[in-house]
Amino acid sequence: MFARLRSDIQCILDRDPAARSAWEVLTCYPGLHALVMHRWAHWCWTHGLKWLGRFISHIARWLTGIEIHPGAQIGRGVFIDHGMGVVIGETAEVGDGCTIYHGVTLGGTSLYKGAKRHPTLGRNVVVGAGAKVLGGFTVGDGAKVGSNAVVVKPVPAGATAVGNPARIIEAEGDAKREEAASRMGFSAYGVTQNDDPLSQALRGLIDNASSQEHQIALLWQAIEKLSAGKPPAECVPGDAAREEHFEKDKLNQLVGK
Question: How do residues 168-178 score in pLDDT, each as one tens digit?
């Protein structure tokens, strides 16, 4: 018991830069308190003491703002950061090393008793603040769920799910678009991708801006090479002097000389 507690404390010290000491973690981290009380509640639940398990869970929610059903299975090294508003359902499974931020819901979409209604998180999954993972599917090892995402389908191992409804960022085009949007100080990951006209328009604008940025970079490279008296690398065919003269004429036209 104490070895598990020491492991939990060390896990928080390793992963939270705001944690300054083991005593601070032990006394001031509601995520740790919720996990410890969940183990008591889960033991009662699995040994036939259903009401006592639910009562301990209820007290834990009142003290920490984190609601974990006593039937849920929580692995080792799980870190619930901040924690307020976290809800973990009865048939949810959280793998070792997972990180769950505040406002996260691991909920169900089925009303059938005895069925697997809540998600399974693999090892080392990160679920961002406000995310909703709903259904009896699996989020693979090492996957990431973005803040405020609504995930209703399985997420492959190592993938990143963002948006509402969530989409998987794995294609090269999506990754480049997110990178370009991030450079511009804006990312539209929180909007619907496929059926929202505004989202479609924003994606087009981001792609167009990224393309123009690339073209401007190439133009500046050509100008710098001309200023240095060297023909651009792209001017392979024909005489170098003729190509240089041709490029200078084009540059003069651009600047209005």
Answer: 876 555 666 66
Q: Can you give the length of the chain in residues?
A: 257
**Is the bond leading into 197 cis (omega within 30 degrees of zero)?**
no
* Averaged pLDDT, 149-165: 91
102 forms beta bridges with none
Q: How far is CA 88 from CA 8, 34, 76, 93, 122, in A?
A: 19, 11, 16, 9, 15
From the list 212, 64, 107, the residue with the least C-alpha distance to 56 is 64
Tokens coding 94: 């959280």
Domain formed by 2-170, architecture: 3 Solenoid (2.160)
Nearest C-alpha neighbor of 12 from the set 27, 30, 32? 32
Report whether pLDDT(199) > 70. Answer: no
169 DSSP β-pair partners: 160
Q: List the chain domain ranges.
A: 2-170, 171-186+195-257
Give dist(CA 1, CA 39) in Å, integer: 10
Which of the listed ranges 96-110, 219-233, 237-251 does the model predict with the highest average pLDDT? 96-110
| pLDDT of amino acid 165 | 86
